[in-house]
Each structure stands twice: as structure tokens, then as C-alpha cells.
Write a structure and sequence with these properties.
CATH topology of one domain: Immunoglobulin-like
Strand content: 15-25%
Helix content: 10-25%
Number of helices: 6
Structural class: alpha+beta
Distance between the termini: 17 Å
Length: 345
């Protein structure tokens, strides 16, 4: 027993010494960083296949089920999102891609739920709670919705989902009206829309809702005039590809303000409608870093930075390694002698 334990100690110390001598790097973890590459000209805001996206490094961000507050579904479907980012000094564009076997872009049916994805930025210094912020730690959320995207391409009605639906008449329609569409356009019967409820609008200018939250149950849509995030998404061969874009600068208090050459925290969430995921039933990420690269000027040095000559790697001379070896050997001998005397007494 004594010999076995001492041999184990020798082995550990020997491995440590060998690691030092051969400068073997120790295991370490590093947070994810998404770099928004600086480019010139227009950004591909509606072109997921644009060659410009290949200039940005794809970063795979892991997601897991939201398990903090109800409703909770442990088996959410989306396990990761691949992210690329570009900026041109004026606007930021981010391309999000994830696997999804089915396209769910309608909520007209009672049992239909949409696919969607969201990006979240802190509105304070530091990182508030990663899941929708906290009191005193608001976050700005960009929420792309597949059904809003589908509406922009081709609007559907209840008659499209329920072809056998029948309506005698509505009191506010004319005999010549299409009953199934007239019910959705008369503002006198759309009180929610009249009160400014963005979700009640019959049509949206963007598939992205711009929101602010400060904890669970506080999600609030920004006013219509503050909806300034553009989006475009398409589903092909089992993969969603969604582009978010917005000007770097915004005067709205609920908007994150971005600048080239700076780092920001960002988090992601995604919903699979086929799995009945909605609201708090979702997959979320932890905070990751988003770095907006400084614009590259002629000469290859980014604006606002200074060229730095890398320092040579520090290497110890041979005599220093011998001294460390003698010192560690002495420590081992003294330790063994100490334990030996302890067992004899």
C-alpha cells in the first residue's frame, strides 16, 4: 500500500515535470467569439448564398432547453446554430443556420406553431441573466418569425387552412366583399391593432420583431416606429437560413448601439414549431462574444489600432531547467522521508 501510493505520487510529479520541460500546454477552455468581418459595399441582407458570407468564419453555438421557468420542455429539438457576421461600418448583418426537418411557417391552425429564432443583446454594461435579462438588466431582442416571413411572400387566410369553412355574412361587409379577407381588414373590428398591438397587424414590413425584456414576463414589443430590424429567411433541404440586419447606430433607447472595433455579448434562442415549441419552450444559448472587426485600411492596419510587434516566446535556459529539476527532486525526497518517519512513529 505504501509503495503503491508513493509510486502514484512519483508518477504525477514526473508527468508534471515532463510537461514543464517539454512545454506541453495545459488543457484550457475558451469562450466562443463571433467575428463580424468588415467588408466594403452593400451587405447581403437577403442572400444567404452570397459569396461574401464565406469571408466570415462560421461559429457553431450550442443550445440547450430552457429549464429555468415554466413552461418547460426538456426535449427541445434545436441543439446548435451556426453563425456568421458581416458589417460595412454602417450596418451589421448576421446569418444564422440550423437543421430543421420541417418548415413550420403558419399559425392559422389551432395546432400550428411556427419556427423562429432570436438574437439578444444586453442594454447594460456586463452580462445580465442570459435568459431574457433581469430587473435592472434589460436586453434588446431581435425575433425572426417564419409565419411573418411567409406573410411577406404570400398572405394566407383561414380559408387556405380550412377549405371547407363557411361564413354566412359579417355585418360590416358588403355583398361584393370576400368574407374571409374582409374580416381581417376592417379597422373597426380590429381593436388590438387600433391600440398599437404589433402582433395584431394584418401585415408586417419585416419578419423580425424588435423587443425589450427585463426578466421573465416582461417581454415588450417596441413601438411601430422603433421596429428597425430587417430580416430574411428561407428553408431548404432541412435547413433554415435566416439573416438579421440593422444599422449599427440607433437612437431608440431600447436598441443596442454597435460600433466597429468593439466587443459585445450576444445570446441566441430558437424554436421548432413541429415540436410545439413556443414562448418559453425553446432552446437557448449562453452569452457568447460578438466582435465587430475594425475596418481595414490601406496598409493592412485596422483603423483605430496601432501595429504591434509580437513579443518572442519566452524560453528558459538549460541551467534553469536543471535547477527546477534539482528543486523538485529535493521536494519529492523530503516528502517521502516525512511520510516514512510518520509511519515509523
Amino acid at each position: 500500500m505504501w509503495i503503491h501510493s508513493r509510486l502514484s505520487m512519483f508518477l504525477v510529479l514526473g508527468l508534471a515535470l515532463a510537461s514543464l520541460f517539454f512545454q506541453v500546454p495545459l488543457a484550457s477552455s475558451q469562450g466562443l467569439t463571433i467575428t463580424a468581418v468588415a467588408v466594403e459595399g452593400d451587405l447581403p441582407m437577403e442572400e444567404p448564398d452570397a459569396a461574401l458570407w464565406q469571408q466570415a468564419t462560421a461559429v457553431e453555438v450550442p443550445l440547450s432547453a430552457q429549464m429555468i421557468t415554466r413552461p418547460i420542455l426538456p426535449d427541445t429539438n434545436i441543439k446548435s446554430i451556426t453563425v456568421r457576421a458581416l458589417h460595412n461600418g454602417q450596418s451589421l448583418a448576421m446569418l444564422l443556420e440550423w437543421a430543421d426537418a420541417t418548415r413550420n411557417d403558419s399559425t392559422l391552425g389551432l395546432t400550428e406553431f411556427r419556427d423562429s429564432v432570436a438574437i439578444q443583446f444586453p442594454l447594460i454594461e456586463g452580462q445580465p441573466f442570459f435568459c431574457m435579462g433581469q430587473q435592472g438588466g434589460d436586453v434588446n431582442i431581435w425575433h425572426w418569425k417564419a409565419d411573418w416571413q411567409a406573410e411577406l411572400l404570400a398572405r394566407r387566410s383561414l380559408q387556405d387552412v380550412y377549405p371547407n369553412i363557411y361564413v354566412d355574412t359579417y355585418p360590416f361587409t358588403e355583398p361584393s366583399d370576400n368574407l374571409y379577407r374582409a374580416a381581417y381588414v376592417d379597422p373597426n373590428y380590429r381593436t388590438a391593432e387600433a391600440s398599437g398591438n404589433l402582433l395584431a397587424r394584418s401585415a408586417h414590413s419585416s419578419p423580425v420583431e424588435d423587443l425589450v425584456a427585463g426578466g421573465f414576463g416582461s417581454l415588450t414589443s417596441q413601438p411601430l416606429e422603433g421596429q428597425n430590424v430587417q430580416g430574411y429567411g428561407e428553408w431548404r433541404d432541412g435547413v433554415w437560413r435566416v439573416i438579421f440586419s440593422r444599422s449599427l447606430i440607433s437612437a431608440d433607447a431600447g436598441d443596442v448601439v454597435l460600433a466597429p472595433g468593439k466587443n459585445y455579448s450576444v445570446a441566441f434562442a430558437a424554436w421548432d414549431g413541429a415540436n410545439r415549441e413556443r414562448n418559453g419552450v425553446k432552446s437557448t444559448s449562453q452569452w457568447v462574444s460578438l466582435q465587430l472587426a475594425a475596418p481595414v485600411v490601406t496598409g493592412g492596419v485596422p483603423e483605430g489600432t496601432t501595429a504591434v510587434t509580437p513579443l518572442p516566446a519566452m524560453r528558459l535556459p538549460l541551467w534553469a531547467w536543471l535547477a527546477i529539476l534539482v528543486l523538485l527532486t529535493g521536494v519529492v525526497v523530503v516528502t517521502l522521508f516525512y511520510f516514512y518517519l510518520g509511519e515509523k512513529s
